[in-house]
From TrEMBL:
Organism annotation: Undibacterium jejuense
Limits of the ABC transporter domain: 5-237
Keyword ATP-binding set for record: yes
SUPFAM superfamilies given in the database record: P-loop containing nucleoside triphosphate hydrolases
Keyword Endoplasmic reticulum: no
Family: Belongs to the ABC transporter superfamily.
GO biological process, one term: L-amino acid transport
GO molecular function, one term: branched-chain amino acid transmembrane transporter activity
Keywords on record: Amino-acid transport, ATP-binding, Cell membrane, Membrane, Nucleotide-binding, Transport
Domain of life: Bacteria
InterPro entries named in the record: AAA+_ATPase, ABC_branched_ATPase_LivF/BraG, ABC_transporter-like_ATP-bd, ABC_transporter-like_CS, BCAA_Transport_ATP-bd_LivF, P-loop_NTPase
Source organism phylogeny: Bacteria, Pseudomonadati, Pseudomonadota, Betaproteobacteria, Burkholderiales
This protein's name: ABC transporter ATP-binding protein
Amino acid sequence: MKPILTIRKLHVAYGHVHALKGINLELHAGQITALVGANGAGKSTSLLAISGLIKAGSGSIEFDDQDLLTLAPHHIVQKGLVQVAEGRAILGTLTVQENLDLGSYTRKDKAHVAADLDWVFSLFPVLKNRANGLAGNLSGGEQQMLAIGRALMARPKILLLDEPSMGLAPLMVREIFRIIKEINQTGLTILLVEQNVKQALKIAERAYVLENGEMVLEDTGANLLNNPKVIAAYLGT
Ligand code: ATP
């Protein structure tokens, strides 16, 4: 089947730092695709390029018969590609409810918005309980839940997650990965960028390993979990 999104020969540089050196990647509808690699490999840069938040030097990112490199970031969001940024970026001085409302701000289908809010609250009951509290008073894990919930309120076609488990306690890490899988089971396509290689490969149908701006491995998540190179470099013994 044709991929929902195709990255071809993408190059990105920050001045003299050649962060992405001609990477290729495909996302398939309804699947979780993981992009893993060490610090500085170029994972965040890949997501920022898809979202249009940094300018690629060359290559293409095809989605919906268009090259995203020609579009402004807000048009890319309107097309349904919604990124949950590393570090979460929720608005701490607004309530939980207000943060969620921001996600659906531009939607006109109010009945569906209400249904999506019910869904987000069922995924994250803590957000319902704390709806009128300030987002800044949530724990790190709860803030991550809010950031994901806010992205879901935009009804994305593709959810781009940048290190959702970063800085969270082990129990919360497991909970976040469980919920990502649950969200995917509704049919939502997800690109999951992670340094937690083991957990990411466990829930991903396909995965890519990025090293120093180059794609060095691509396979099913299950195969990569058993790949000796992946085990040696990222999973330990
Ligand atoms: P991390 O997990 O640390 O975010 P990453 O795999 O997401 O790592 P990137 O953040 O994409 O990696 O960085 C890729 C390369 O680009 C690194 O060498 C990094 O130092 C460099 N880089 C990233 N952002 C900038 C910037 N704004 N200016 C200059 N160099 C940058």
